[in-house]
Amino acid sequence: MNTRRISRYALLASAVMAAGLLTSTALAASQPPSRAVRAAATAAVATVITKTYSVIVNTDGTLAVGPAGASSNNFGGNYGYFEVIFPSDVSKCVYTATLGDPSPTFPALGFISVTLRSGNPNGVFVRTADTTGTANDHAFHLQVQC
User: Has UniProt tagged this entry with the keyword Signal (predicted)?
Assistant: First the structure.
């Protein structure tokens, strides 16, 4: 058996183990999984549903671009505090953000951080700052992958 084929079996066996259909003893034996186990693993993987949300938020907190049902808010006072609310639960998702304007201009330099919005599983809290770390309002792009 060549290395590439063993690799595929090891990868499939890992997926099957994650689905609870194969034990570590069978994996250690480096035996190819049975046809039934492979079919069950494929079915388990096929049921995974992912969603992606992307938004662009203006400096004033208004939503420049986003999915239906999304909203955003700047808490005011030029403190760099924003919230973005999505149409479904994003509490178990990955958040990626970068400073950036919705128009083709030079975006401000600075920092951005994101976390789950306290008390709202549909929300993401965003904080922006300038290059010295001083809180400051900036437009940004945010992507949520679940």
Answer: yes
